[in-house]
């Protein structure tokens, strides 16, 4: 079987006449710029990249923000077996009127999550290509980061359950800004790897005929994997320290003494994580080298280039077999994982009764195992020289176990993320066996995407990922409502989707 790195190089080489590559070669001399010494990746720049991820760890927009939103819904909701708003939520369920229907609060969270990802897809379609042109690359990350931090502090004004509708807005904005910042920060790592001193030296040896091209491509691939995995490991270590401080904040606010204190603690934790993010982001804002990108093609503007280049990127994917197949796989498996994690998170919040202390301790377990899992995966890959695709193929199997476990809970209360012990086990398992997906799936994008417009293809995959991410929650929300508020029923849909995505990955591995 052809090595995926060599195979990708052959495909890109055969596509030199295509519009996307032709445009980049005709309208830019960026490749010449990035070969100069001025744009060599320094140790300080690399560490600034790592430290940024310590701040952009998801605690505000992806963890505590959604938990606070669901907490407000629970406190504002009512028992569906009683007259509306006459009895608080309890063992009989919890519902609220939302978008024209009386819905279970878990269904509301999933539906709002889907709306958020739909908006992200539209935004990335418009601005996704901006990172490829001029010197906009750092600015996009900076803008998303500042907006995300502002949203984090805005949660301090939303602590009354009656303000849950404002929580909807902050929940959506928090996810959009977090994912936007994460997308364009992540897309910078292939350029960092390509401009490392040792990789630039290797490229010169290839030009001089002293080194084989396939050997050079493999070395660059390993550096991309190293940067991606090390960034996750460092983020995990930093996040553990942040969570340890949060435990102290929770104790100081006496969050366990009343629901009011607990709700206030949620907002304080979100704001605190936003402040930490800003501090961690400043070194990256200052030290990231503003490597020049492409020039805008004639007849285009920043308002239209995103849509036009996305069409070009899709057309290019159709010509590059591995890129196209991985795009389909990424769409399906991304939907499986994103929706699975969201569904489990809603179940987790209910099981631990929205306790800030419990959720923080669970996150500590998850982050410790995440750092351990990602780093062990990387050490194994480095030791045996395993390809990115092989590591990814091994990793996705463990996602299946989550869907099966949740599926068991459709007809029984003994299993299915319905007990505290299951939630603790899930956090450890998720960190060790599932979290490496986030590193390897991103690295794989860099290995199946044409080099001249790497940022565009990262944005394209993000659009595809966000499209799948809003389809899954919307379908899951509808499934919960149609099944009489059975919160585990979406796992049947997710199991079938995993089988489909695994088949596509297998077909990709057999691609001639």
From TrEMBL:
<comment type="similarity">
    <text>Belongs to the ATG22 family.</text>
</comment>
<keyword id="KW-0812">Transmembrane</keyword>
<comment type="function">
    <text>Vacuolar effluxer which mediate the efflux of amino acids resulting from autophagic degradation. The release of autophagic amino acids allows the maintenance of protein synthesis and viability during nitrogen starvation.</text>
</comment>
<dbReference type="InterPro" id="IPR024671">
    <property type="entry name" value="Atg22-like"/>
</dbReference>
<feature type="transmembrane region" description="Helical">
    <location>
        <begin position="423"/>
        <end position="441"/>
    </location>
</feature>
<feature type="transmembrane region" description="Helical">
    <location>
        <begin position="265"/>
        <end position="287"/>
    </location>
</feature>
<keyword id="KW-0029">Amino-acid transport</keyword>
<feature type="transmembrane region" description="Helical">
    <location>
        <begin position="108"/>
        <end position="128"/>
    </location>
</feature>
<dbReference type="InterPro" id="IPR036259">
    <property type="entry name" value="MFS_trans_sf"/>
</dbReference>
<feature type="transmembrane region" description="Helical">
    <location>
        <begin position="392"/>
        <end position="411"/>
    </location>
</feature>
<feature type="transmembrane region" description="Helical">
    <location>
        <begin position="488"/>
        <end position="506"/>
    </location>
</feature>
<dbReference type="InterPro" id="IPR050495">
    <property type="entry name" value="ATG22/LtaA_families"/>
</dbReference>
<dbReference type="Pfam" id="PF11700">
    <property type="entry name" value="ATG22"/>
</dbReference>
<keyword id="KW-0072">Autophagy</keyword>
<feature type="transmembrane region" description="Helical">
    <location>
        <begin position="359"/>
        <end position="380"/>
    </location>
</feature>
<keyword id="KW-0926">Vacuole</keyword>
<feature type="transmembrane region" description="Helical">
    <location>
        <begin position="230"/>
        <end position="253"/>
    </location>
</feature>
<keyword id="KW-1133">Transmembrane helix</keyword>
<feature type="compositionally biased region" description="Basic and acidic residues">
    <location>
        <begin position="1"/>
        <end position="22"/>
    </location>
</feature>
<keyword id="KW-0472">Membrane</keyword>
<feature type="region of interest" description="Disordered">
    <location>
        <begin position="1"/>
        <end position="37"/>
    </location>
</feature>
<feature type="transmembrane region" description="Helical">
    <location>
        <begin position="453"/>
        <end position="482"/>
    </location>
</feature>
<protein>
    <recommendedName>
        <fullName>Autophagy-related protein</fullName>
    </recommendedName>
</protein>
<keyword id="KW-0813">Transport</keyword>
<feature type="compositionally biased region" description="Polar residues">
    <location>
        <begin position="24"/>
        <end position="33"/>
    </location>
</feature>
<feature type="transmembrane region" description="Helical">
    <location>
        <begin position="324"/>
        <end position="347"/>
    </location>
</feature>
<feature type="transmembrane region" description="Helical">
    <location>
        <begin position="140"/>
        <end position="158"/>
    </location>
</feature>
<feature type="transmembrane region" description="Helical">
    <location>
        <begin position="170"/>
        <end position="192"/>
    </location>
</feature>
């Amino acid at each position: 079987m052809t090595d995926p790195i060599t195979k990708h190089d052959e495909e890109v080489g055969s596509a030199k006449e295509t519009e996307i590559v032709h445009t980049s070669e005709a309208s830019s001399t960026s490749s010449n710029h990035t070969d100069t010494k001025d744009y060599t990746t320094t140790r300080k720049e690399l560490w600034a990249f790592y430290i940024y991820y310590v701040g952009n760890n998801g605690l505000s927009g992806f963890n505590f923000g959604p938990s606070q939103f669901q907490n407000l819904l629970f406190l504002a909701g009512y028992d569906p077996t009683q007259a509306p708003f006459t009895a608080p939520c309890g063992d009989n369920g919890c519902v609220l009127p939302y978008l024209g229907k009386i819905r279970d609060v878990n269904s509301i969270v999933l539906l709002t999550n889907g709306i958020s990802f739909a908006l992200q897809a539209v935004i990335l379609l418009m601005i996704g290509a901006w990172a490829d042109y001029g010197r906009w690359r750092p600015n996009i990350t900076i803008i998303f980061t500042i907006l995300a931090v502002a949203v984090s502090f805005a949660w301090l004004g939303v602590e009354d359950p009656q303000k849950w509708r404002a929580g909807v807005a902050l929940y959506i904005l928090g996810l959009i800004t977090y994912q936007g910042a994460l997308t364009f920060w992540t897309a910078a790592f292939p350029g960092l790897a390509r401009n490392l001193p040792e990789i630039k030296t290797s490229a010169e040896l290839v030009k001089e005929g002293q080194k084989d091209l396939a050997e050079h491509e493999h070395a660059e691939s390993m550096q991309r994997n190293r940067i991606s995995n090390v960034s996750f490991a460092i983020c995990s270590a930093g996040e553990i320290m942040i969570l340890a401080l949060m435990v102290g904040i929770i104790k100081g606010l006496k969050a366990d003494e009343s629901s009011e204190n607990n709700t206030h603690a949620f907002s304080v934790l979100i704001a605190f994580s936003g402040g930490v993010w800003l501090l961690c982001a400043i070194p990256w804002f200052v030290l990231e080298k503003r490597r020049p990108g492409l020039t805008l093609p004639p007849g285009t503007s920043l308002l239209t280039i995103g849509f036009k280049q996305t069409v070009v990127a899709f057309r290019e994917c159709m010509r590059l077999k591995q890129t196209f197949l991985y795009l389909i796989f990424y769409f399906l498996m991304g939907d499986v994982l994103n929706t699975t994690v969201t569904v489990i998170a809603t179940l987790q919040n209910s099981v631990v009764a929205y306790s800030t202390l419990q959720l923080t301790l669970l996150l500590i377990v998850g982050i410790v195992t995440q750092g351990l899992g990602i780093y062990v995966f990387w050490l194994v890959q480095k030791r045996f020289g395993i390809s990115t695709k092989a590591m990814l193929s091994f990793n996705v199997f463990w996602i299946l176990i989550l869907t099966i476990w949740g599926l068991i809970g459709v007809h029984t209360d003994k299993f299915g993320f319905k007990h505290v012990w299951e939630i603790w086990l899930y956090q450890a398992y998720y960190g060790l066996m599932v979290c490496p997906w986030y590193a390897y799936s991103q690295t794989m994008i860099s290995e199946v995407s044409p080099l001249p417009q790497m940022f565009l293809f990262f944005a394209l995959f993000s659009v595809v990922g966000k499209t799948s991410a809003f389809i899954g929650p919307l379908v899951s929300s509808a499934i919960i409502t149609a099944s009489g508020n059975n919160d585990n029923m979406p796992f049947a849909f997710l199991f079938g989707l995993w089988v489909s995505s695994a088949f596509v990955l297998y077909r990709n591995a057999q691609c001639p």
